[in-house]
């Protein structure tokens, strides 16, 4: 007998807490359809904006997998000790056509959602695109104000910061998820009108190659892997404890369904898997859903009952010391 995996995010009912996050594995309509077929409750499409410089970045994109010794190999299946290290950019598409195509997929998605993702270059243009998403009938929007590549991008290509949220929020009525960097203010994002926050985007990193004595990929680049999970879970738990009723989408570190359970226990209502889908393909989504189902069945709980359970049992150092003296 299957467990009840249903959750609610941003006021929307999700059949399970597994989301395909915005990235290279959701960069085409075929990719989005494959993730939906794998059972994801929502698929967040690869981010877009109007900036020509941000599109040029994608044409110069490069991806490698780093092993435990930081040796690089071509993109492909990754273990829990590996990291995805990449330089990326935004889709080079006709924005009106892309949004219309995503809206068509969303109408066909049934009990799942297709979610466009916007990154800001010009705020007025972001507002226009957000309105277009709603006008096309899309039911949910992600606004990424924490893109890790922004600091390496050409000036004006990618803007970041929670101060960007309010203008977009005031322009639309559909649910809005705001994607943040670690350390961004969850409270400010919620105050600006976010219906959910997504924590957290990957960090930027630098890896010298010992053989060539040059930078891997030639640049600074974004990095993520299972090693990041405990760091992200702390961000999620802190946010949950500060705002217990807030919808939190966890991201950065989940490789399987047991990691999804860890995110839920930390306070996330759902989990966006991105790097794992890039390296393993959409089948990692269905595998993760099955693993979460097995875990919840064994524990005798629903997915909803897991949310925040571990976070609510966090003690301060002082409290632990007192308990040990008793």
Sheet with most strands: strand arrangement: 8-4-3-16-15-12-11-10-9
CATH class membership: Alpha Beta
β-strand number: 16
Helix- and strand-based class?
alpha/beta
Number of helices: 12
In whole angstroms, the N-to-C terminal distance is 43 Å
Average per-residue pLDDT, rounded, comes to: 97
Please sum up the structure shown:
By secondary structure, the protein is of the alpha/beta class. 36% of the residues lie in helices and 19% in strands. Helix 4 runs parallel beside helix 5.
What does this structure look like?
The protein is of the alpha/beta class. It has 12 helices and 16 strands. Strands 8-4-3-16-15-12-11-10-9 form a 9-stranded parallel beta sheet. It starts with 6 loop residues before the first strand and ends with a helix.
Features:
alpha/beta; TIM Barrel; nine-stranded parallel β-sheet; 16 strands
How is the topology of this model organized?
Blueprint: E1 7-9, E2 12-14, E3 18-20, H1 29-37, E4 42-44, H2 52-59, E5 62-66, E6 72-74, E7 83-87, H3 95-108, E8 113-115, E9 117-119, H4 123-135, E10 141-144, H5 165-171, E11 176-180, H6 186-191, E12 196-199, E13 203-205, E14 221-225, H7 229-242, E15 247-251, H8 257-266, E16 270-273, H9 275-280, H10 283-299, H11 303-306, H12 317-325
Parallel strand pairs: 3-4, 3-16, 4-8, 9-10, 10-11, 11-12, 12-15, 15-16
Antiparallel strand pairs: 1-2, 5-6, 5-7, 7-14, 13-14
Helix pairs in contact: 4-5, 7-8, 8-10
């Amino acid at each position: 007998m299957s467990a009840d995996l249903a959750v609610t995010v941003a006021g929307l009912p999700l059949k399970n807490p597994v989301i395909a996050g915005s990235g290279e594995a959701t960069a085409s309509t075929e990719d989005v359809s494959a993730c939906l077929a794998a059972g994801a409750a929502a698929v967040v499409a690869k981010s877009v904006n109007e900036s020509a410089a941000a599109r040029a970045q994608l044409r110069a994109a490069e991806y490698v997998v780093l092993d435990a010794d930081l040796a690089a190999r071509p993109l492909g299946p990754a273990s829990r000790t590996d990291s995805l290290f990449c330089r990326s950019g935004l889709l080079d598409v006709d924005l009106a056509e892309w949004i219309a195509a995503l809206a068509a997929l969303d109408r066909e998605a049934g009990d799942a959602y297709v979610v466009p993702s916007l990154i800001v270059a010009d705020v007025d243009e972001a507002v226009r695109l957000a309105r277009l998403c709603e006008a096309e009938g899309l039911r949910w929007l992600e606004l990424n104000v924490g893109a890790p590549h922004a600091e390496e991008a050409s000036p004006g290509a990618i803007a970041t910061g929670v101060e960007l949220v309010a203008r977009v929020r005031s322009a639309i009525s559909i649910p809005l998820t705001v994607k943040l960097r670690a350390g961004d203010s969850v409270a400010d994002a919620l105050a600006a009108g976010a219906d959910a926050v997504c924590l957290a985007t990957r960090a930027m990193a630098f890896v010298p190659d010992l053989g060539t004595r040059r930078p891997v990929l030639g640049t600074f680049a974004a990095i993520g892997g299972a090693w990041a999970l405990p760091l992200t879970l702390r961000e999620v738990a802190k946010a949950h404890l500060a705002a217990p009723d807030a919808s939190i989408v966890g991201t950065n570190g989940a490789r399987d369904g047991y990691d999804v359970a860890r995110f839920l226990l930390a306070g996330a209502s759902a989990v966006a898997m991105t790097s794992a889908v890039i390296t393993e393909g959409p089948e990692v989504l269905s595998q993760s859903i099955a693993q979460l189902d097995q875990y919840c069945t064994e524990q005798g709980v629903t997915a909803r009952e897991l949310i925040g359970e571990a976070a609510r049992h966090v003690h301060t150092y002082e409290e632990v010391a007192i308990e040990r003296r008793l």
